[in-house]
Amino acid sequence: MDYDVIDLSLAGRGKARIEWAGLEMKVLETIRARFEAEKPLEGLVIGACLHVTTETANLMLTLKAGGAEAYLCASNPLSTQDDVAASLVQDYGISTFARCGEDNDTYYAHIASVLDKRPVITMDDGADLVTTLHTGRKDQADIVLAGTEETTTGVIRLRSMQEQGVLLFPVIAVNNADTKHFFDNRYGTGQSTIDGIIRATNLLLAGKVMVVFGYGWCGRGIASRARGLGSHVVVIEVDPLRALEATMDGFQVKTSMDAAKVGDIFVTATGDTGCLRAEHFETMKDRAVVCNSGHFDVEIDIPALEGMSKSRRCVRDHVEEFLLPDGRRIYLLGEGRLVNLAAAEGHPASVMDMSFANQALAAEHVSLHHAELERKVYDVPREIDEEIARLKLESMGIAIDSLTPQQEEYLKSWTLGT
Ligand code: ADE
Predict the structure, then answer these.
(1) CA atoms of 332 and 222, how far apart (whole Å)
(2) What is the whole-number distance in angstroms between the Cα of residue 54 and the centre of ligand 1?
(3) 294 in ligand 1 pocket by Cβ < 6 Å?
(4) Most buried of 135, 162, 225, 371 (most Cβ within 10 A)?
């Protein structure tokens, strides 16, 4: 079997952790049991470019149970859990190409290794697999039935490909399912980002000023969890509606320049480039901490920070100190990459359960309906979303009411008024 992982001797630990995550992934477990029996993905080659975590391992096992030949590479150079990669290869026979800390060339070599398997379904987190295929390997696009995309940034890239008329096959935007972004982006990113900051720094968050860039689903989650730990949260937004929402949710809203003067910890979650720049670093307090929770490492201008610093050194795992000429120190976490995956373990299994249930059912949807799909970005069908919500509630032992016949009737009628 073809693979590239750091150390197969880590497999035992990886297997135990994969099983531990599986305990919180009951929706995926239900789907896996049905896939075992029905084999809806029989004979399909699936190429996945995802964060190599315990949760992703459970997804890969589900795809395999469905009959797919599944291959995996990392969707970020710093997010691979090497014990999981080892176990996928050794215990589960899944070809995995991922090494935590891999350089850019290795990262793309691993994507190439997955593309060499000629996938007919691509499964992306950030769209690097699809964009690599579209730039260097266009000839392979014909065999792809469709792709799936896990994250907001990836969906934005794919929409831009669709608008420019260059998208060569359909893609299902898993991120857009309600059972994905309402939970994974908000509660998953909220908790795991705070987890990453705490694991990296061991700072007390109570009483600190935490500046959150972006009030999308991720920003909302981070802001609300930081408030829960006693931080004074300041939100930075460019969208007036979101800024208004943040204000009425009880957060302070400021311009980034005003926030730069007062923040203790800065977290970017915008999906855009250059949020924290030289002019912000110029005014920050001594010992300000900066980190990113957006998909790519472009939100903090690290070259600018490095260019204005006298020195850069690692002071503890995942924490680098930049010493400015006037003696102020700025601390960068996780090299400006996703702090929740670089310094912690990513989102907890319970939310990834729903995200990856969407991935598994989206793959099944592709196997059944690819002939009807055009070269467009599609939402996950509503029935899938609702089925996942129903299964999740069931797995949590939560029963809900249904409408009485009288209520159903009332909702359909327009004659009954005051
Ligand atoms: N993205 C965020 N958290 C993740 C996790 N635990 N596994 C895979 N992808 C993720």
Answers:
(1) 18
(2) 9
(3) no
(4) 225
The CA 352 to ligand 1 mean position distance, Å, reads 7
What is the 55 CA–ligand 1 centroid distance (Å)? 7
Separation between Cα atoms, residue 152 and residue 124, nearest integer Å: 11
pLDDT one-digit tens code per residue, 288-342: 999 999 999 999 999 999 999 999 999 999 999 999 999 999 999 999 999 999 9
Confirm or reject: Cβ of 347 under 6 Å from ligand 1: yes
**What type of residue is 353?**
D
Best CATH choice for the domain 8-180+347-395 from the list 1.20.210.10, 3.40.50.150, 3.40.50.1480, 3.30.420.40: 3.40.50.1480
Span from the CA of 348 to the centroid of ligand 1 (angstroms): 8
Three-state DSSP class for 397? coil
| CATH of the domain spanning 189-342 | 3.40.50.720
Residue that has been written with the tokens 């987890």 in this structure: 195
Residue type, 203: L
pLDDT digit string, tens, across residues 153-199: 999 999 999 999 999 999 999 999 999 999 999 999 999 999 999 99
Q: What is the pTM of this model?
A: 0.96
Helix (H) or strand (E) holding 281: helix 278-283
- CATH 3.40.50.1480 residue ranges of the chain are 8-180+347-395
CA of 191 to the centre of ligand 1 (A): 12
If one counts every other C-beta atom within 10 angstroms of the C-beta of residue 395, the result is 17
Q: Does ligand 1 have an atom closer than 6 angstroms to the CB of 15?
A: no
Residue 185 CA, ligand 1 centroid: distance in Å: 10
For ligand 1, whether the C-beta of 175 sits within 6 Å is no
State the Cα–Cα distance between residues 330 and 319, nearest whole angstrom. 10
Which residue, among 273, 276, 272, 250, has the nearest Cα to 263 in the 3D structure?
A: 276
C-beta of residue 36 within 8 angstroms of C-beta of residue 65:
yes
Atom of ligand 1 nearest to the CA of 75: 9
- State if residue 124 touches ligand 1 by the CB under 6 angstroms criterion: no
Q: How far apart are CA 246 and CA 207, in angstroms?
A: 19
Q: Is ligand 1 within 6 A of the CB of residue 51?
A: yes
Q: Quick one: pLDDT at residue 416?
A: 84
